[in-house]
Amino acid sequence: MNVDRFLRTLTICLLPLLATAAKAQAAANDRFAISRDQVCRALALGDDQCRNVDLLGRPLATRQNALLRIGRRMRTSLGEEVTLRCDAASCLPFFVLIRDGQSRLTTSEETVPASTRSNLFTVRPGDPASLVQASAGVRLTRRVICLERGSIGDVIRIREAGGRTLLRAMVVRTGELEAAY
After folding, report:
1. Residue 26 has pLDDT above 50, yes or no
2. How far is residue 83 from each of residues 22, 34, 120, 148, measured CA to CA in Å?
3. Which domains does the chain have, with CATH numbers?
4. Are 102 and 124 in contact (CB under 8 A)?
5. Taking a C-beta distance cutoff of 8 angstroms, is the pair 68, 42 a contact?
6. Average of per-residue pLDDT values in the chain
7. How many CA atoms lie within 13 Å of 160's alpha carbon, on the beta-carbon side?
């Protein structure tokens, strides 16, 4: 009789835990990873060029084999950065980098000796810079202050000189940034 009571109590205690685990598993299954092959098909790249594609992050979609749409393309020092979106809002926009060549410049702090690490950054916090915004033949330039360190191609936080407005911009060269939307 004690064994029956024990099993009943155990079942009553475990049932809510099993239900919660099942719900968590179902929620986890609602997301599908977007593969490099999907990105290469969307960009119409061959196998040779596909080796030069880096997914910047781990893009997930709510539907398997979501149709990808090409957004903004931007040239950087490492290659071409492309914004991709899924159709019907089944994923958040994400970035891919199409590297120019087989070799890739690494700026990871783990793989670069400490003695050369400080030389990797083109801008540092507190540095003044020019923010360039260009659209339809109009080019606007504003003075800004860098709030983060960054190398060419990095997107950093900045603030308007003499203001409080925070923005994000991509480092183009020393002292020059391009607005990132």
Report:
1. no
2. 35, 14, 25, 23
3. 32-99 (no CATH), 122-179 (2.30.30.760)
4. no
5. yes
6. 75
7. 7
